[in-house]
């Protein structure tokens, strides 16, 4: 049974009907986080008010406002156990009752510690099962609003301990390949974790990959010497000595490496392709929003795609896929035989031995050497540039990092990134992508079109200056990698009706004001960031049904067609828990009529491995992707790398897709 409250990742709660209810940013979520932080204790109104509002923004009736949000929470919370109220109140204070096993952080701690204990008493099979159950609960960084700082740090370190124990258990139960994948994932996250290097060396030795194990030890030794001026610790040196004793009298095999395994252990980085050039009398690139399109032939020939009347033509240069090569190696420290194997591994990679069919995707075309090139798109990764760049997927050829804007407080963080994260990202040839999702409760709003009802912040006086600050924080040179902005995430949910365009006059008036606001934002944000491209952001299921009577589903697009055509690209998220491949094809087909299309954030809502795997298998066969590119798809961003990290099979599949079809963003 899943824990009722989830704080290991985005805050979520299992509702009264047994389904998981995610809580988007807003005061209801903030209130639950504050109550969870003080769970099983009375939390007074002063503490709750400090969490809910800035001191200068306190409402006229603090207790009345808190009661309103408490009432909303009680609607979604399951009943308490043994007849006890789940969320109790008394004079000026509230208490959230959380029993044993109801908070995922507590369950994670118990499982992880039990796994370590099982390993210590000589039961690696039980240890592996317990640690896998523990790590499956980890959906992302712990929710700091719901946990104190010391607990967050303890949980993060316990996650490392759980992964070390899992790697040890996998080796002991005869699964060294899975341990290798786990160790590599850990090292991608933090290359200075010496225990992860130890597990990698031991697992490679257990798998019979002695040369790879030697290479891994040497890579760890060089890294530690260069970083700290110190040799590896005793445990890693002991693993190395055992490896040397095992290989001392063994001749070097005459054949080359199995499939560039040696290269896979070396640090790699993707290099952007040179700036493309479109055909023309002067040889200069035609003007346009700076996103690639395709003629659908797979030939890579430059074409111009005209998305619709009044829309700018979009140039269609297709840069070569990002190349991968091993990072510089100190030949004085690496045996010559090992260097020869590394070079052989590079040649294997360059020869393209890893085919699409080899990744488990259907190979329908039987393409031979010299045939049409595979379709290429820009792959992105979230949920922010700091975490994304630690993922193994970045080494496969991801060309864009995605982050989210939810509230005004995010601007300080973005402006802090301006000193290092943002310029470093652009200098690496990567595009940046910001999704603006202002999740808050709808309210009555006055507009020049009349009374409206919806989220107040997007239509407020503060929103345009805030978006100018956002654009300025992420601004890059006009001739550098683009900044993509997907505005108003899931815009059909911004109104109180949460339904169609014509649901009632208050809904229609809100959307009229929102379109006017978006037109203003296009002008203001483009002026603040020369490399900015902007789009409206839809939910991926929007094209899967139609309700012309109230303007829901596909009918909604007609009411936004003029601002869609004025946009630089089109954008939608794909995240339903029951499958997204069909939605992706439908949305690309519809939105592609108005401009190039980006999947802004992909990831099944329930983080289902089966759904994720099925979506990738159905979306990324070469012929399917070629049709999507022909319809306008130019970019596809993964929500976050957490699910891939916990499933080596999914990481391999996703990395292969990115490597086969990925390209870096075009520059002007």
TrEMBL record:
Residues 18-96 form the OmpR/PhoB-type domain. Residues 269-330 are annotated as: Disordered. One of its GO terms (biological process) is phosphorelay signal transduction system. InterPro entries: AfsR-DnrI-RedD_regulator, BTAD, OmpR/PhoB-type_DNA-bd, Sig_transdc_resp-reg_C-effctor, TPR-like_helical_dom_sf, WH-like_DNA-bd_sf. It comes from the Bacteria. One of its GO terms (molecular function) is DNA binding. Residues 269-293 have a biased composition (Low complexity). Residues 309-320 have a biased composition (Pro residues). Keywords: DNA-binding, Transcription, Transcription regulation. CDD domains: BTAD. Pfam families: BTAD. Residues 103-244 form the Bacterial transcriptional activator domain. The keyword Glycosyltransferase does not apply. The keyword Transferase does not apply. Belongs to the AfsR/DnrI/RedD regulatory family. PANTHER family: TRANSCRIPTIONAL REGULATOR REDD, TRANSCRIPTIONAL REGULATOR REDD-RELATED. This is DNA-binding SARP family transcriptional activator.
